[in-house]
């Protein structure tokens, strides 16, 4: 993947630095908050821990002055989250599974999945897939950071879920590979990060949230709560996405990503809530509140994402950033 186009003063300074050999630098001043600039800057800092960028030296990953910038960006993001996500009522560790179920049941959001199932046109479905590609092409990676930080029942449960996400040892069954087939079926570029320039701040925020929780051991409870919500809110929406894609002429190969999740996540949600989160709360009861907070953050950001997309479509405009601003546009 190549560095995206900057979206403001912070990414302008950051990207100019990153194309040079690693060196200490003074942090860019973060003035007026611009979500596009801040979320892209944070996404770029995090990406150095995943696949990186062609023109950025790998050694930047642990350059202390860059890590200081990342921490400042994370604090901004954490403050924003604190305003957007009311902390759920603290629950008993032994009832964490029930508390997760209640949070999911109480969550409200606009009917994006139903719209994609019944009404979306082909261009809208392609837009949806472009948004989701930022995560699905690295599907499961952010939650894998938790594995070495867990033990016992929670670790075994997470390993079981991740093994499925990574295709059980078969490349063609990896969920990221299944998603590539969906993209190709829609005549989209399936290369990693191809649409980074097209997705808005809210889409980047949904992925940055996972990296924030994943890269900080202290947030392991929130990371597992986040994954539990992902799994618990997956089966029915994926059934709808698959129906929507078939309605638009998608073949079995293009729909397989969605079909696979209908079945797999019906199982994963049980493992995630009972064994993974239940197991962590049993061994580390002090993390119960953080598990629920991570779950609430996942639900809130998913709602804000759906509101953004449906709002733009209702107004007859694109939910993506304008192609003219982009490099590597479809
Ligand atoms: Fe998956
Ligand atoms: Fe899953």
UniProtKB/TrEMBL annotation:
It is an enzyme of class 1 (oxidoreductase). The keyword Ubl conjugation does not apply. It comes from the Bacteria. InterPro entries: Haem_Oase-like_multi-hlx. The keyword Oxidoreductase applies. Keywords: Oxidoreductase. SUPFAM superfamilies: Heme oxygenase-like. It comes from Streptosporangium jomthongense. This is Iron-containing redox enzyme family protein. Its EC number is 1.-.-.-. SMART domains: Haem_oxygenase_2 (SM01236). One of its GO terms (molecular function) is oxidoreductase activity.
